Structure formats: structure tokens, C-alpha cells
Amino acid sequence: MTPPARLTVLAGPSAVGKDTVAADVRTRFPNVWLSVSATTRPPRPGEVQGVNYHFVADDQFDRMVAEDELLEWAVVHGVYRYGTPRQAVLDHLAAGDPALLVIDLQGARQVRRRMPEARFVFLAPPSWDELVRRLVGRGTEGEEERERRLASARVELAAEPEFDHVIVNDDVHRATEELVRVMGLASPPVGPVAAG
Asked: Would you say residue 191 has pLDDT above 60?
């Protein structure tokens, strides 16, 4: 019987590159299961239901909270709610799958209370100026939303000492490899992968 796996929680401020690193993990380390959050925010261009997020209506999210179906949930940047469906996480851990949960600081704190045995990793920017450049450069938020996210980022950066590991995202592939090492997994083979 496969022993249960240990959950890894990746958190950090908006625009630090959490989703980019998670996508790189998904591409290069396909054995890592990446949790898909539920959210009340509308999809951004190119986002796919059930792949990027489970996009749900407010009343559906209310029901998930009421029925304790979420491992964690939070109102992010004072606007939309995000949460992690609990059963999928438990099922993958029980199957021995290395599991990665990408969430914000509020969510990470809730998971620490509910699953203190999890591994908590903080993804940090190389500098404050670089974080601002990334947030402005992605062009997905208006001025008011950017200011709200930057205010949240100051709070999130101050929480770095609460985490077990800190990874600076100065290079996506390097950050991914460091994250996978922290998770106790081997790096992928170098060179072409044989078709199977």
C-alpha cells in the first residue's frame, strides 16, 4: 500500500509568479498533482474551467463553505473568494501523489491550522521593484486593483518568516527545481524524453 504523501503549500504575493512556477512544475514534473482552486471571480482570457480554476457562482461557493467542502478559503484583495476543494486534496495524498497547493497567505494560514504536517513554501520576488514591474507588466488589472494587490503584497511579504522554506523567483526553471527538491522529488532527466 502506498503511504500517504505530504502536502506542499506554495504561497507568496500577487505577481510573484506562483502560477508560472506551478505551470512549470506541471509541465516538467507531471507526477506532481496540482490542486485546482474554486473561485468566484470571472475567468481571464485563456483560462479554462476545471484546469485553471473551478469558476463558481457566489451561491455555490456559499454552499461549499457551509458544507465544509473547502480545506481553506479567503476573500482575496477584498473582492473575490478563492478556496481549495478538500476531498480532492485528501484523495491524492491518500494515493501517495506528491501534491502542490498554490494559495495566498490567508489560505496558507488556514491550511497550517488544519494540516500542520504540510510543507509550507514562500515564493519571494527578487526585489520589491521587480514585483511592481511584474504586476504592472502583466496588464490584467486596472490601477485600483493594482494598488489593492500591492497593499496586500506588503502584508504578505512581512509573513515570510512563517514559512518552512523561502524560494526567490529570479528564474522560473531554477525556482521550480528548488521547489521540487524541497518536495523531495528528483529532477527530470536531461535530454529528450522517450515516447511511451
From this structure: no
- From CA 90, how far away is CA 1, in angstroms rounded? 16
Percent of the chain past pLDDT 70, that is, above it, reads 91
Q: How far apart are the first and last CA of the chain?
A: 26
Q: Residue ranges per domain, the chain?
A: 7-182
Strand order in the sheet with 33-34: 33-34, 99-102, 7-11, 119-124, 165-168
pTM: 0.84
Q: Considering the domain 7-182 in this protein, what is its CATH number?
A: 3.40.50.300
* Predicted pLDDT at 195: 39
What residues contact 123, with CB distance under 8 A and at least 6 apart? 10, 11, 12, 16, 17, 18, 21, 167, 169, 175
**CA nearest neighbour of 108 among 78, 143, 73, 79:** 73
- What whole-number distance in Å separates Cα of residue 143 and Cα of residue 174? 31
